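User: I'm curious whether this sequence folds into something compact or stays loose and floppy. Could you predict its structure so I can see for myself?
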Amino acid sequence: MTDLEQGGSSENRRKRLLFRAQRRGFKEVDLIFGAYAESHLAGMDEGALDQFEALLTAPDQDVYAWLRGAAEVPPEYDNPVFAGLKAVCEQQTPRWTS
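Assistant: Here's the prediction. I'll summarize afterward.
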């Protein structure tokens, strides 16, 4: 159930997702999810927010393996949001290193 269905706002959902993205507990994944969230959350529709939230619930080690290409991405997570996260990993100069 979305925040809107629970009487909350889309903005509150985005704030909550940003917080979760930056504090997953696995530093490398925190940096990737946090950088992606800061750049894209504001423009995401409900479907993309649902995809992002689903990825946030996946185990850190699994997500990290998928992002590195060490494991195949399950079909339920292989979506445009995951592709965006993967693009963050492939940047020549990631934001967090400058």
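Summary: The chain has one domain: 10-97. The chain has five helices and no strands.
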